[in-house]
Design a protein that fits this description.
6 strands; RagB/SusD family nutrient uptake outer membrane protein; cell outer membrane; two-stranded antiparallel ribbon; about 475 residues; SusD_RagB_dom; globular; Serine Threonine Protein Phosphatase 5, Tetratricopeptide repeat; TPR-like_helical_dom_sf
Length: about 475
């Protein structure tokens, strides 16, 4: 019998995750009664899930990096990465296989946790309902997040028109031993998103609002729902979900660099956990040390952020601006982009154990503003633009001294721009705020924008191919068109 490589891989990783799980049992079996006997075993399994999510093969690098390479903001040579920015990714690319196989490891282990939980509850009457809820909520969210990343990368951009197109295999039962290896076909894209929303409903029903660094909570669920609804152009729902997070305990940092460089930043809704919680040795810090920002992206994003009238006013007064979110020029600032706009510095801190942004407060503000704009609430969108720009822009004179209330020269006033112009400003500010955080490709697809010359938002080459190793071993899988 042919064995699917990634399901075998998941099986053996499950077996090796905790050595004391296995007694002298047949090599091809993982017995639940020996593997997950106690609440502590379930918590250990959940901790292992976070390790996989935070790994460089998934959210610790690849899932954030690929969207920027495919979207055209950066280039990275070597080790198979160059094929992403030139849109020549082939089914044999090992980076694609890393993403696919890691995602299905997470899904299988999540299924294992959820299936085993009732039996552990039966064995341990003292297993508190609160602890059960937390395990369930976190597991369901991690599965939803993983399916969403798979759908984004391997499927057409979600819309009601695309709901019947090819999705990814939806797996809801764990593979326990090699005799249970499954060869599922691809569910429809609509079925994948239905499962994502079902998992998020379960997560919302079980998680609390308590914030623990590196772990998910109620706010994370609402942030992800806001992202999904914006993706689907469901603006009222996106507005409401983002509002839940905005009304929470989060706030903008004075300096945008603190979001990435300070572990206690109040903008962190969910970041990967660095330090001892993530033993990755090469992640986004490594990637962006070598990756170069494309000239087109730098020109469109950082150099033309102000209107010609605003630039004229600054020049007439002898003032300049520094954008704390970009290539800030004074020596005393901590830029997030190099002054020559060649390199992203968000992750370049000489430390391999870093936290990386998956959901943050700023994104929720931007979602709320975009939804408000689409709903005709222009003043609310303008307020967010001013809030983020006032935090980002510093005005200084020819001596390098800050100009008190210098942002007054740059403030956008109600009625100054029509909806189309405001939308363009908001899109540009989103590019600046969330640059190199894994959003660019998906933002442009949501906007139905041209990604590259001649490459439309729904072009087949923007979808990753199903790994060849999976096609060779799983008879029910179908490759994406164009490969």
């Amino acid at each position: 019998m042919r064995k699917s490589f990634f399901f075998l891989l998941m099986f053996f990783i499950c077996c090796s995750a905790c050595q004391n799980w296995l007694d002298e049992q047949p090599e091809n079996a993982l017995f639940l009664e020996n593997a997950l006997e106690s609440p502590d075993d379930l918590q250990a399994l959940l901790n292992g899930l976070y390790q996989l999510v935070h790994s460089e093969e998934f959210a610790g690098r690849n899932a954030l990096l690929f969207a920027e390479l495919l979207g055209g903001s950066a280039t990275l040579e070597g080790e198979g990465f160059e094929n992403f920015d030139n849109l020549q990714v082939q089914p044999g690319n090992n980076r694609v296989f890393e993403l696919w196989s890691t995602c299905y490891q997470i899904i299988n282990q999540t299924n294992l946790l959820l299936e085993t939980l009732p039996e552990v509850v039966r064995r341990y009457p003292g297993f508190s309902q609160e602890a059960q809820n937390q395990l369930t909520g976190e597991a369901c969210f991690l599965r939803a997040y993983t399916y969403h990343q798979l759908a984004r990368y391997f499927c057409r951009p979600y819309s009601l028109e695309n709901a019947d197109s090819l999705g990814v295999p939806v797996m809801l039962t764990p593979v326990i031993n090699s005799s249970e290896l499954q060869y599922p076909g691809r569910s429809s894209l609509g079925e994948v998103y239905d499962q994502i929303m079902t998992d998020l409903e379960q997560a919302a029903a079980n998680l609390s609002t308590v914030i623990v660094p590196g772990r998910v909570n109620q706010y994370t669920v609402h942030a992800m729902r806001a992202r999904l609804y914006l993706e689907a152009h469901a603006y009222t729902a996106a507005y409401d979900e983002a509002g839940f997070v905005i009304n929470g305990p989060f706030e903008l940092q004075t300096d945008p660099a603190d979001v990435f460089w300070e572990a206690d930043s109040q903008e962190r809704v969910w970041f990967t956990l660095g330090g001892l919680g993530n033993q990755s040795t090469a992640s986004l810090d490594w990637a962006y040390t070598d990756a170069r920002i494309t000239a087109k992206f730098a020109q469109a994003t950082y150099i033309s952020g102000l209107s010609s009238a605003q630039q004229t006013n600054l020049e007439s007064a002898g003032y300049q601006i520094a954008d704390l979110r970009g290539p800030a020029k004074p020596d005393w600032l901590r830029p997030l982009i190099s002054q020559d706009t060649l390199y992203c510095l968000k992750y370049n801190r000489g430390d391999t154990f870093l936290d990386f942004p998956l959901f943050r407060f700023t994104e929720c503000l931007l979602i709320r503003a975009e939804a408000a704009l689409e709903l005709g609430q222009h003043d609310e969108a303008i307020a967010v633009i001013n809030q983020l720009r006032q935090r980002g822009y510093l005005v200084y004179d020819s001596l390098g001294l800050l100009v008190e209330d210098g942002y007054a020269m740059l403030r956008i006033e109600s009625g100054e721009y029509n909806q189309a112009a405001l939308k363009k400003i908001l899109q540009q500010d989103r590019q600046i705020e969330l640059a190199f955080e894994g959003h660019l490709l998906f933002d442009r697809q949501r906007e139905r924008a041209e990604i590259r010359p001649g490459i439309t938002w729904d072009h087949p080459r923007l979808r990753l191919p199903i790994p060849q190793r999976e096609l060779d071993t799983s008879p029910n899988l179908v490759q994406n068109p164009g490969y």
